[in-house]
Amino acid sequence: MYGFEALTFNIHGGYLEAIVRGYRSGLLTAADYNNLCQCETLDDIKMHLSATEYGSYLQNEPSPLHTTTIVEKCTLKLVDEYKHMLAQATEPLSTFLEYITYGHMIDNVVLIVTGTLHERDVQELLEKCHPLGMFDSIATLAVAQNMRELYRLVLVDTPLAPYFSECITSEDLDDMNIEIMRNTLYKAYLEDFYRFCKTLGGATAEIMSDLLAFEADRRAVNITINSIGTELTRDDRRKLYSNFGLLYPYGHEELAVCEDIDQVRAAMEKYPPYQSIFSKLSYGESQMLDKAFYEEEVKRLCLAFEQQFHYGVFFAYMRLREQEIRNLMWISECVAQNQKSRVHDSVVFIF
Amino acid sequence: MEYIDRLPAMDLMRSEKMMLVQLIIPVESAHRAVSYLGELGLLQFRDLNDDKSPFQRTFVNQVKRCAEMSRKLRFIKEQIHKAGLTPSPSPAPQPDIDLEELEIQLEEHEHGLIEMNANSEKLQQTYNELLEFKMVLQKAGDFLLSTGSHVATQETELAENIHVNDDYAETSSLLEQEMLPGPSNQTGVRFISGIICKSKVLRFERMLFRTTRGNMLFNQAPTDDQILDPATNELVEKIVFVVFFSGEQARVKILKICEAFGANCYPVAEDTIRRRQITREVLSHLSDLETTLEAGLRHRDKALISIGFHLAKWMNMVRREKAVYDTLNMLNFDVTKKCLVGEGWCPIFAKTKIQEALQRATTDSNSQVGVIFHVMHSVESPPTYFKTNHLTNAYQEIVDAYGVAKYQEANPAVYTIITFPFLFAVMFGDWGHGICLLLGALFLIAREKKLGSQKLGSFMEMLFGGRYVLLLMSLFSIYCGLIYNEFFSVPFHIFGNSAYRCRDTTCSDSRSVGLVKYQDTYPFGVDPSWRGSRSELPFLNSLKMKMSILFGIAQMNLGIILSYFNARYFGNSLDIKYQFVPQMIFLNSLFGYLSLLIIIKWCSGSQADLYHVMIYMFLSPFEDLGENKLFWGQNVLQVILLLLAVIAVPWMLFPKPFILKRLHTERFQGRSYTALGTSDIYDDEEPDSAREPHLEEFNFSEVFVHQMIHSIEFVLGAVSNTASYLRLWALSLAHSELSTVFYEKVLLLAWGYDNLVIRLVGLAVFSFATAFILLMMETLSAFLHALRLHWVEFQNKFYSGDGYKFRPFSFAALNEDED
């Protein structure tokens, strides 16, 4: 099959690829963002969005709006689109699409477990979960007391089960090991997704391994920065990095021993693709790093659309929409809290 | 030439003359003026605030208010729909209310509805919960009975029961006490009973099993019918369960799982007496609630009905208001901020009507200053507007689907009205099928009023929209069918007897060899004797093929002549001299000549081979034609025509671009500085104005390449388009052969048996084949081919179709959109 996707891709994937490209053309453009950034109230935002594809999702919302409603409705649109695609997909595209949601599943599991640890109401927590990462028995997570139970009772039924093999301990749950669990799960998930894409072969493997490698590297950097000054040992830190990506393996060795942000920077600047990201930041600064990474990611995701006959477009589309929803959330928050001067801080233009 | 000018103008031939007008409306009468214009529906506003985003415009707040109101109206409509009522306009006329009042009223109504809904929802929830409780009591009771009696413990618990019963009796805390586990009996086994969605029950059971490590007993029973879920208010199938387990730890876990799965737990007493008592309680509560709920519903329905009277009117009003404000947003404020300035296109005939409407608006709003209305000069091409009626509209749509005519360009729809159904009929010639279509079309037209007012499916909508096309198509296919002499492929002797007769009495099988012509030619159409004869196909093929070419050449000539009228109308003598003339010459010297030959051959009955004539006209023009000669001087004529065709090609290719270039250089020679002076005048105008001139750069190579493409396309097209008209023959052949097959191989074959069943089956197959294959599929394919012949072969001769439609601001169109 390798290299000959163009011959057969359209038999099963053609319709959905067309669909997803159509969806992509509905993404907000820089002009839309410029207009949105000038909004004075949330009603203005609603009004502007009503001219876009979000229109039908927002038109029945009574004023005054809340940021959460906007985000919720926009996410609903994404979920509807995702469900439509999933329902139309055949193997292996359907598995690929399911893989996209596992990240949200991990986040949801962590959210619920952390929430119950701090004795929050389960219903309240469920509302906060990302709808893409929902699974049937998610509410039962609250029953579990430790990792082993978590696995045995709930997660064994979910696709996350195989990723759990690394973190089954009988320790009681606390913030620290929940965070470690999240990262271990994420590592296993990324590696599995990466392997899966490799088996698909062709342009999908090529493009997805690039995108996933970037994701893995970004996580590695984030883990490093977040674990500076905590009791996480170097070896433990090293264990959380995914075993692929541009930084693997030598970059990981260097990141594992970093003690402050400048050392991270020094380690990263050896890699040309990341040099440009770090060169935008001043020394000792890590606040804007997220945005810089997001911008780079969006650039890469947009590039995925330049090739045809591969599944990367689905991943890219979902990620771009999520970024768009993040943007909308930020803009609405800024507008709602009258912080319009900061509106450009975190908005990543997609086109 | 003058004769042409003196012809009366055809309305549909050229689009309406438009003008660009500027309105300066005082702010106080702006709203009224725009709404009067909307009622009139003859002015298309230009958006003067294109650069502003929607919320930066002047009337954004009003637009928002309208959007909010329409949201409330949608909410109310949904409520009415949910309640199963149909909103009907009230019989009595209502007083007009203005927008502010409506806003307040809507606010009240929405508030009231929400409150009523909240109340009834709460009641409904309680009701549903009680219903579930009832189910649980019934079903779980059965389990408990079957799991064995606890006679020993009953006695001791009796006292306790009475105490608990008091509790139930005096308060409605019945439900607050849920999750009361059954009291432990001797073995320490406790139970929890509840109800859960059917879809979740398997996973629920598995989860329970895992949590308790198998130390539980799970019993389930489906409820008798679907019940409303208290949480979501949807009808679902539910299952009553009872879990037996032991230990406090397990209880906590099970309760948590129940919660996670959305299972509602209800306490069920272990002993029968108490259970019966509780059941009674629940039932009485239920009947109480039922009456309350019903009263609430009645109340709500009454409120909804009273709103329903006004709903349609209100919705219409809000929609209009929103459209008015949207239009107002397209206008600019003038410098003094006291007037709104708008620009728009309107047809010239509507000028007085618009002025009248504006005048009315001024007086009605008691404005001191009138609306200033003046015509402006425009550079931008005006929109295209054809006044159509029921009949012409469908044909105009057919043309518009290809491309909207350029402003004032010759409109092919005028000819399409006849040529389209005719070409269709040439392919669909069968008067039996034609009559079927005619009946369908007449049905649609007879019920026009009724069908027009209701919503149709997309297929019906299309059929209904094209009812007049269908009518003409069917009439023409009856006509063509009579010419082809086919009635469901059977020939009839309508116009007298056949001209042919058997030579002697022995020829019974009516072969053409045995036939002689004994009287005058059959007066109309094809002689019925041809049918079934050995030479039927060669005869009909030759006839239809030649006929197709004649029609094709005629229609293409019409197209080229229309290009002449276009050039004349736009005063473009270059196009006449260097495009129209050589095109006419080229087409007619080759294919016009072919048509001439066909006609001569038909008239003279000559046996000449026209293929041969045409081919050797190119290959060896000077050779003698021999037996293929049709008339005196044919050789000389052929050479002249060939020469003319050869000359015509460079004629249409070279002169035009060069002359254009010369004209351009002449126009701008030594005038390169004047542009500065003229641009000053336009500086004070609004930047978006349609008056803005844009100077075009003259690019010779582009013009030349364009001309080259055009010429090549024409030359090659002359051949390929002529060939393309042969589809008329092909489709017509296919149609008649198909219907023959169905008639002979199905109907006649079945009729050959002396068996009623076989005959009926044959008849059924024949009528289905006729209805679905011949009447539907063939109609569709003939329609598409006729469409292609018009869009491609006919329209590419003259039609540029790069205009844009006139979309006036009109309330009537607004209502159509919404429906």
Automatic annotation (TrEMBL), chain A:
How is this protein situated with respect to the membrane? Peripheral membrane protein
Which one of the record's GO molecular function terms can you name?
A: proton-transporting ATPase activity, rotational mechanism
Under SUPFAM superfamilies, the record lists: V-type ATP synthase subunit C
| One term under GO cellular component | vacuolar membrane
Location of this chain's protein in the cell: Vacuole membrane
Q: What does this protein do?
A: Subunit of the integral membrane V0 complex of vacuolar ATPase. Vacuolar ATPase is responsible for acidifying a variety of intracellular compartments in eukaryotic cells, thus providing most of the energy required for transport processes in the vacuolar system. Subunit of the V0 complex of vacuolar(H+)-ATPase (V-ATPase), a multisubunit enzyme composed of a peripheral complex (V1) that hydrolyzes ATP and a membrane integral complex (V0) that translocates protons. V-ATPase is responsible for acidifying and maintaining the pH of intracellular compartments and in some cell types, is targeted to the plasma membrane, where it is responsible for acidifying the extracellular environment.
- Check the record and name the PANTHER family matching this protein: VACUOLAR ATP SYNTHASE SUBUNIT AC39
Q: Which family does it belong to?
A: Belongs to the V-ATPase V0D/AC39 subunit family.
Protein known as: V-type proton ATPase subunit
> Which species?
Sesamum indicum
Automatic annotation (TrEMBL), chain B:
Q: Which GO terms describe its cellular component?
A: vacuolar proton-transporting V-type ATPase, V0 domain
Q: How does it sit in the membrane?
A: Multi-pass membrane protein
Any idea which UniProt keywords this protein has?
Answer: Coiled coil, Hydrogen ion transport, Ion transport, Membrane, Transmembrane, Transmembrane helix, Transport
Tell me the protein family, please: Belongs to the V-ATPase 116 kDa subunit family.
What the protein does comes down to:
Essential component of the vacuolar proton pump (V-ATPase), a multimeric enzyme that catalyzes the translocation of protons across the membranes. Required for assembly and activity of the V-ATPase.
Q: Which PANTHER family match?
A: V-TYPE PROTON ATPASE SUBUNIT A1, VACUOLAR PROTON ATPASES
Name of this protein = V-type proton ATPase subunit a
Q: What is the lineage of its organism?
A: Eukaryota, Viridiplantae, Streptophyta, Embryophyta, Tracheophyta
